[in-house]
Every structure is written in structure tokens, then in C-alpha cells.
Amino acid sequence: STAKFAVAPATETGPGTLYVIANGVASTGVEVTVGTGFPLSLSESGSGTVTSAPAGIDCPGTCDANFAARTRVTLTAAPAAGWRFSGWGGACAGIGACKVTVNAAKSVAATFTQFFGLTVSKSGRGRVTSRPAGIACGKNCSADFAAATTVALRASAAAGWHFAGWGGACSGTARCRVSLEAAAGVTALFEK
User: Fold this and answer.
1) 4-16, pLDDT tens digit by residue?
2) Number of C-alpha atoms within 13 angstroms, CB side, residue 110?
3) Quick one: how far is CA 46 from the chain centroid?
4) Ramachandran assignment for 141, one of left (phi > 0), alpha (psi -120 to 50 degrees), beta (any other)
5) Is the whole-model pTM more than 0.85?
6) Does 191 score more than 90 pLDDT?
7) Taking a C-beta distance cutoff of 8 angstroms, is the pair 131, 151 a contact?
8) Phi, psi (5° rounding) for residue 128?
9) I need a surface site. Which of 18, 40, 61, 100 has the fewest CB within 10 A?
10) CB neighbours of 135 closer than 8 A, spacing ≥ 6?
11) Dihedral angle of Cα 5, 11, 15, 17, to the nearest 10 degrees
12) HSE-CB for 43 with a 13 A CA cutoff
């Protein structure tokens, strides 16, 4: 059988032995650990750090902490260089700060995604655009994309010019496709 009970505030924390006494007869002792508050556990995928306010979690490193009942804990994610925070899971959702009221054991997941830069250099007059969106070269000739994304580049020559070909990570005159496993550079050559 099972029973729920509240631990008295003055109970010493740490390891101990729990006995149930009914009608003056004690049960066999069960080893327990008396803690304070409720556990909040964090798991991470990718590269970054998550810290809590009030202090207790600083993950990686310390990814689990106990907080007093009904404590409002705010988790903040900071991606490592070349990574972005993709979102929360478990007791939180979205990409903003995670706010959890610890009224029971809770778990939260933080996901970080790696990004690589793609840079386009132009010679002559023309425009280069990307799919997925990010590069619209004339103005924006570089953008970051999630690792393993295949970026398709399209060249459009200005009036009186023609597209002569790609250089760098692409070659030829057909649409350029770059699968980003590292930072990459592409050259677009436009001629009169």
C-alpha cells in the first residue's frame, strides 16, 4: 500500500530511515533521502548554456537543482558561438525566457541549433537570391543557415549584362546548390 505525507519543516535533510508505525507496531525501515523543495531538471541538445534565477542551475555543469515549493524559476538560454537557441521543451515552450513555477518535480529541455555562414561575392552587375530566404545580394550578400541546410542560389543579370558562372563552392551556370556542413563562399560573375 502507499501513503502520502508532509515532511515537517524542522526535519533534518539528507539520508535517513523511514518507519511507519501503526497501533504501536513499526514497519521495516526504508532508506530515504530528505531534500528541500522540488527538483527541476534540465536537458540540453546542442551547444549553449542555461542559467536560472534564482540561482541553482548553470548547465552544462549543474543541470538539476531543488527549489522551494511554489518558487517561480526563470531559465535563460545563451547559445555558444555559431549556434542559436531553437526552443524549449517539457515544462516550457517557445524561445523566450522559460518561467516555471516549481510545485512538483519538473523537467525542461533546451535545444540549440548550429548555424554556418554563406557569403556571396559578385563581380559585375546582377543580383543573387537564395532559397531559403536570407541572401538578396545587392544588399545582403551573406546569411547564416542551420547546419545541413541545402541553400539554392539563383543569379539574375542586370539589363545589358549576362551571368557568366559561379566560382567557389559552386561551378557552371546552372542554379547553385550548397549543402552547409561548414561556412562557405560563392562567387557570381556577371559580364557585359
Assistant:
1) 677 776 777 778 8
2) 29
3) 6
4) alpha
5) no
6) yes
7) yes
8) -125, 130
9) 61
10) 118, 120, 128, 129, 141, 142, 143, 151, 153
11) -60
12) 7
